[in-house]
Amino acid sequence: MKALFSKSIDPRCIYCKRAQPLNPKEAACPKRGVVEVYDRCRAFIYDPLKRVPPRPAKLGTDYTAEDLTI
What we know:
By secondary structure, the chain is mainly β. The protein has strands at about 20-25, 25-30, 35. It starts with 19 loop residues before the first strand and ends in a 34-residue tail after the last strand.
């Protein structure tokens, strides 16, 4: 959870408060127009609600019911 609200986030247009996503590769910025989502500029304002956390790792499927009992 700490990583989502950290101050050391790489500035990217996809996480900017000003940018609106157009498609998975482009965003509309009021300062710079249509930009790629991985671009950045000095007008960046971080919006933690736009950040999607990475998916959790899947568990291995080679466990038996006996392995999971106490």
